[in-house]
Amino acid sequence: MAEFPFELVSPEKLVFSGQVEHVVVPGADGEFGVMAGHAPVISTLKPGRLTIFAAGQPARHLFVRGGFAEARPDGLTVLAELAIPLEELDAARLAQEIQDAEEDVADATVEAVRLTAQERLERLREFQAALIQSGGFGGSHSGH
């Protein structure tokens, strides 16, 4: 399978940079896979699991939230507000993310801000439910 350059960047650091065969991105309009030669696409991210497939290595799974992905025929760049390897994400941290989102909804005084916060809260709850259904937290996830 052809490889292509992929970078995952968060405000704190360069999370991943290297050659990959396939990346599954949680786009706002649904998950999408990127392989070498992908048509140009820009998508916002929804909170969810980003999966990296590199030759000869186990799949890497990360929780991402906020930001966007830019796929090009010559590579993929994902800029995420938050990017945490799933093995580092625990139930308490996700619960805190949900609590923060609930507070954002409660504190919003502008309807558009409240609706955006409500969407984020719903996506976090969906992600939490998906993690629980797939066997919990940590690196035990496989597939895409």
Descriptive labels:
144 residues; alpha+beta; ATP Synthase, domain 1; 2 domains; 8-stranded mixed beta sheet; 2 helices; 40% strand; disordered C terminus
Condensed summary:
This protein is of the alpha+beta class and 144 residues long.
Structural features, described:
- The chain is globular and about 50 Å long.
- The longest helix has 23 residues, at 111-133.
- The protein folds into two domains: 4-86, F0F1 ATP synthase delta/epsilon subunit, N-terminal (ATP Synthase, domain 1, Sandwich); 88-133.
- A hairpin with a 2-residue loop joins strand 3 and strand 4.
- The protein is an alpha+beta fold and 144 residues long.
- Residues 138-144 have low confidence and may be disordered.
- Strands 1, 2, 3, 4, 5, 6, 7 and 8 form an eight-stranded mixed β-sheet that branches.
- It has helices at residues 91-107, 111-133, and strands at 4-9, 14-20, 22-27, 30-34, 41-44, 48-53, 60-72, 75-85.
- Helix 1 runs antiparallel to helix 2.
- It is built from two helices and eight strands.
- It is found in: Cell membrane; Endomembrane system.
- F-type ATPases have 2 components, CF(1) - the catalytic core - and CF(0) - the membrane proton channel. CF(1) has five subunits: alpha(3), beta(3), gamma(1), delta(1), epsilon(1). CF(0) has three main subunits: a, b and c.
- Produces ATP from ADP in the presence of a proton gradient across the membrane.
Summarize the SSE layout with pairings.
Blueprint: E1 4-9, E2 14-20, E3 22-27, E4 30-34, E5 41-44, E6 48-53, E7 60-72, E8 75-85, H1 91-107, H2 111-133
Helix pairs in contact: 1-2
Coiled coil: 84-118
Function: Produces ATP from ADP in the presence of a proton gradient across the membrane.
GO molecular function: ATP binding; proton-transporting ATP synthase activity, rotational mechanism
